Amino acid sequence: MTVFARRARASAGRMHPELSLVSYTLLGHLEERGGCRATDLAAHYALDKSTVSRQVSALERTGLVERRLDPEDHRVQVLVLTDAGRRILAQVTESRRAAFQERLARWPAEDLERFAEYLARYNAWTPPPDEP
């Protein structure tokens, strides 16, 4: 798992020099949700608010994210992708897909099926409810 995480971090930098793995993940979440508050990002990824704030500031400086007033509550700012953010996210996503396809191209079908089942099982795990 450590090797997998290291490779993911390293590949993020190769796919786009301004986009860390954390930034890529945050952009993907913003795209999937259609935008959200920075506090929602921190809660979703169990990150400190200051960590998210630094990441979001960097994404704003590079023009990939912008803040907008929440249409339902004008006291709240929502983070949304800019057009540039959508383009870069699409480019990096496509590069990652191509890298996965290249790496898995010679795997037998039964290994790919088993691998997909294991990944689905791993991703479906939820922590047990807190016990009193």
**Helix share, percent:** 55-70%
Sheet with the most strands, sense and barrel status: 2 strands, antiparallel
The helix/strand class is mainly alpha
In round numbers, the mean pLDDT is 87
Overall radius of gyration:
17 Å
Q: Give the termini distance in whole angstroms.
A: 31 Å
Which word captures the global form?
globular
Structure write-up:
This protein is mainly alpha-helical and 132 residues long. It contains six helices and two strands. It has helices at residues 2-15, 21-33, 38-45, 49-61, 83-104, 109-124, and strands at residues 65-69, 77-81. A two-stranded antiparallel ribbon has the order 1-2. A hairpin with a 7-residue loop joins strand 1 (65-69) and strand 2 (77-81). Helix 2 packs across helix 5 (83-104) and helix 3 crosses helix 4 (49-61). The two termini are 31 Å apart.
List keywords for this structure.
single chain; 132 residues; mainly alpha; two-stranded antiparallel ribbon; 6 helices
